[in-house]
Each structure stands twice: as structure tokens, then as C-alpha cells.
């Protein structure tokens, strides 16, 4: 007789029909199933009569990661089986297929949607989950990335993948969903290490507690690790500085704070700490794709010495209540002159500066207009284009979040006044 050693956890189910299908599929586990836990959003509770054996747990403070970690810590079963969204176990699954041998700790499966293939954890040793907890929702750009982001940090030797264990009752193949899946798919890329060129990521934060942890986590969940992550909190009055301190290790990630004087001064105060060949500027409310550092380094490795700034495309998202919605990709165009720069139809990005060129110009200009608190990117680019060249490549690894608190969104009316100051320069 087999031991009851599996706790099934069902996550992100939206209605009774889907949850019923998933619960019925669990019967194939037979004597191994110890308990079933449905983790549900408080705003969308699912109540099903006659399921006394099923425990329903609300997501605490809308944070799935913390809720799962707290629940798993109390489990006594040897394994946790995860089903999500519209998943159900295939009727052809066998008890024997749900086995892990040392050193394997994760049995995974593949989710297929159009041309995307997403790795998902299916069966995980409970002891391993207690040592490797899930990330908080505050660390990820959207809930669909939750399991894949966690799985990306697990060594390949600890993972075993099998096909045909899980099916989906239905699939969402909208452009919005597919774009999310394309980004999630990048978590699965093989880890890489390139010695040269080196990159530092600079983040200036002011009152972005809702988003800044997503920015930082995106720097750490990279296919290729970046050499430096330097963060300046510019006198925030919310909890973002306290959040940022958890990431500081004094080596790869360094966090500083100062009184509020604007982004240009905040970035300038980070420049003396930069020890790398290039600088990637990341806004505190944006995030990077998991392959951003790798892709950027490939282009930088052949960059001509006279080029001071390299850039690509921007993927744009609209912030909604509890989610982001894909808006499209703004493709860059070549900038060969001052006129090209000042007529550019959207912010140039992602901006990768040659460190020596940026330091030679004295960093980011603190201009008289708005005391340097606006358009610091255009100010420094305007100076650099006079003496150096810019280089565009067709790549998309930078995600821009459009939201109501954005200083750029609230300052669009001042753009023409700012341009007049540049024309007089």
C-alpha cells in the first residue's frame, strides 16, 4: 500500500467548471493523495457544495507567493502537486509517472500555446519548497510569470520533465496573453557568462513602492548576470527604500539614498560607483526581459568605439488594476543628428551608455528647466550627440509601464517648453 504523500494545490482557477474538472482528474492519484488545497483570490471565491475534503485558502493581501510559502511550510506530505489556471491531469497518467529519484527535486511539464512552450513545475519535494520559497507578487510583472520565474532558478540537474501529464480545459491565445508567454519563455534559456563587455544597471527610485521590486528582480532573474546593480533612492516618502534594502549585498547590488533632488542628480551620485564598460539605465517602474543582459552584451561586443549610446525597441504595457495589458512595441529608428534626436517620437530606449563617454560629459546635466527634474535622458543625449555617434539595433528586451503616477505622463504639457531651452543651447 502506497503512502498518502502528495498534497495537491490548485492555483488561479476562475470558475466552478474548471475547478471541478481539475478536482475530478486528481482521482487518478488514488491512495497517494493526502489533501487538496485550492488557493483563491478573495475577490473571486469559488464555493462548491459537497467538497468537504477540499480546503479553500484565500490569497493573503493579494500576494500568492507569501500565501503559498506560508501554507507549504505547514505541510507534512512529501510532495506538492501544482495545477493552475485551466490545468487538469490527463486520464492516462499513472502513479508510476509521478516519481522523483535523487537528486531530482522537481518534476516538470510543458505548457504549449501556439508557438510558445512554457516549463511548469508539476510535482515538487515539499522539503525543497521550504528551502527555495516562491517570490512575492511584488517581484514579478504579472501573475502568469509566477511558477516559471521560480523554476528558472533551479539547477538543471534537479529537474526532470515529462510530456503528456497535464492538459488544459481551454487556452487563451489572445495577442495580450501570447506576448506575456513569449517573455516568460525566456526564463528557460540556458544560463550564460560573458566576461566582456561589462554592464552596470542604474536605477533611480522615487516613491515607486508598487513597482521598484519588479525592476530589481528583473535584473537578477537574468540569463546572464549583470556585473553591477546600483540603486539610488531619491528621498522617497513611501516604503520603497525599505523594500530596496533587502536586495543590497554590498557586491553585485548596492543601494544608496539621498534627499530628493531629482533623477539627474540621483543618477550622477551613482556614477562614481560604476566600474563597468557600459551603463544600462532602468526606470524604477519598468522591467527587463530575462535575456536582456545577454542580448545587449552580444551587440555591445561589436560596438564601434565612436558610439556613445546604443538603443533598441520598447515594449509597452498599460497598468490596470492588478495586471498589465500589452499595448505594442515601439520600434526605434536610427538617430544621426541633433534634429533626429529632437524629433524622436517616443523616449529613446533602452539606453545603454558607454561609461567613459558619459563620465567625460560630467554625467547627466542638471539643467535650469524644472531644476533638472524632467527629461534628463534627452538632456544628456543632446550633449552626447554633438561629439559622439548613436547606434540602433532591432532588439526588444525593455518593458515600459504606463501608469498614472509616471512623472513623464504628468509632464507631457511641458515638453515643448523644454525643447525651446535645448534649441537655445
Which secondary-structure class do the elements indicate?
alpha/beta
Number of domains: 2
Which parts are unreliable, with pLDDT below 50 for 5 consecutive residues or more? Answer: none
User: β content, as a range?
Assistant: 25-35%
Reported CATH architecture of the largest domain? Alpha-Beta Complex
- What is the overall pLDDT average? 90
Rg measurement, Å: 24 Å
Query: Can you identify the CATH superfamily of the largest domain?
Result: Spore Coat Polysaccharide Biosynthesis Protein SpsA, Chain A
Q: Helix fraction? A: 25-40%
What's the CATH first level of the largest domain?
Alpha Beta
Structure, explained:
This protein has about 425 residues and is an alpha/beta fold. It has 2 domains: about 5-190, Spore Coat Polysaccharide Biosynthesis Protein SpsA, Chain A (Alpha-Beta Complex), CATH 3.90.550; about 200-425, Spore Coat Polysaccharide Biosynthesis Protein SpsA, Chain A. The protein has helices at about 15-25, 65-75, 125-130, 145-150, 175-185, 210-220, 240-245, 265-270, 290-300, 340, 355-360, 375-385, 415-425; strands spanning about 5-10, 35-40, 55-60, 80-85, 85-90, 105-115, 115-125, 160, 165-170, 200-205, 230-235, 255-260, 280, 285-290, 305-320, 325-330, 350-355, 390-400. The strands form 3 sheets. Strands 10, 11, 12, 13, 14, 15, 16, 17 and 18 form a 9-stranded mixed beta sheet that branches. It has a 7-stranded mixed beta sheet with strand order 3-2-1-4-7-6-8, sandwiched between helices. A two-stranded antiparallel sheet has the order 5-9. A hairpin with a 2-residue loop joins strand 6 (about 105-115) and strand 7. The radius of gyration is 24 Å and the shape is elongated. It starts with 5 loop residues before the first strand and ends with a helix.
